[in-house]
């Protein structure tokens, strides 16, 4: 197993071993499920629920009962879920739209500079800046200043170390060694988050209607309970991390696949040109996002091949038998290996091929269990709409503004720190002339993607 890429190493093995397999890793039995029939059973909420052990366990000293790592039957799950849901409604998204737009324009400024001077950009670094800045400002009214720094914000460095140590902690001989490092990097995150909270309590933004406001001030609609101060810290870290790690990778994978597939790229550009015309600085409206169906399909298809949260754990609520054959005892847990589920040839024809038309309207029928980049059941992602809105808006504006050229011999390499991201992926950018937008608008392409 390659210690830098444990998930990808296990992917190769699991694929060979078939739809269900068990490996013993330093005494820990890991049951991996990757075939659609068995996975469908594992999604059954009466038989299985979310398991918060294994790779999530080392994060508990830092984000404890935050929404991702809390046990479903702990009171803090329902409390935080219900208190924070209003932060993810349609109305809430309409509120975030203009903040997202502002941050994307900061990315475009940076990329304009690169385009003018002929420098290439490191796509993953910059989508990470974009997504961190977006969740910071939209959710917490906090500026990380990501675009004013050459190096990542200290929060991001501490987070990367924390996730790396947490990854290593799942290997028992390493767990004891990395624990002090894990706690130290966690403490850095906690300190920064205390700043975020203090900035609000000092009255920097009163009447803000965002996630931090809900965390600090909302009461549960039925019980009247509030989040306690320790839990608020854990939630802030949870949402800043979860709110940007996976979205940034998803945007970077989408840009990778776009630039590797010229036909797809042309169609996506034609779609954004049809919506935003030849203006150099369009003013995208909230409702435009629903019109960018093909860009959305590109994102969906990228998340099929490389779901940036590449798996989740399910624990048996009672003794049960999978596929009429495989006995699972109550309390035993299994890993759902998403990149394999989402390439199961029983569901997906020619599964390795990148083809956004798989997500054309009306084609998602009968394959709900074979596409789960945002998880499953009551513990599925709360931030899905936030991520999709941000990513489609950003991809759309990038496609509208630039011609994108990948480095000649780039082959996709993927870094891991619990989540997956393209590594060493660079693009050169050329600003598109307004006239090219009109010429590129091929009515046949638009008709097909409509
Ligand atoms: Mn998110 C849970 C994937 C964006 C906040 N998210 C999950 C799960 C997956 C997931 C998978 C389920 C994990 C599990 O079962 O153990 N999330 C994604 C992906 C993206 C994403 C692929 C972007 C693309 N997530 C976001 C954003 C936010 C967010 C953006 C916040 C703004 N996610 C969460 C939280 C949970 C979660 C919080 C836990 C929800 C719960 O258990 O109630």
Account of the 3D structure:
It is a single chain. By secondary structure, the protein is of the alpha+beta class. The protein has one domain (6-449): Cytochrome P450 (Cytochrome p450), CATH 1.10.630. Helix content is 50%, strand content 12%. It has 17 helices and twelve strands. The chain has helices at 6-17, 36-42, 60-63, 75-84, 90-117, 123-140, 154-169, 172-201, 211-217, 229-242, 245-260, 262-276, 293-305, 338-341, 384-401, 434-440, 443-449; strands at 20-25, 28-33, 48-50, 121-122, 311-316, 320-322, 326-328, 333-337, 402-406, 414-417, 419-422, 426-431. A five-stranded mixed sheet has the order 1-2-8-5-3. A hairpin with a 2-residue loop joins strand 1 and strand 2 (28-33). The radius of gyration is 22 Å and the shape is globular. The model has no long low-confidence stretch (mean pLDDT 93). Manganese protoporphyrin IX (MNH) is lined by residues 50, 67-68, 81, 135, 238-239, 242-243, 246-247, 250, 307-309, 312, 373-375, 379-383, 386-387. The site of manganese protoporphyrin IX has 26 residues, from helix 10, helix 11 and helix 15. GO terms for molecular function: heme binding; iron ion binding; monooxygenase activity; oxidoreductase activity, acting on paired donors, with incorporation or reduction of molecular oxygen. It holds the Pfam family p450. Its cofactor is FAD; heme; FMN.
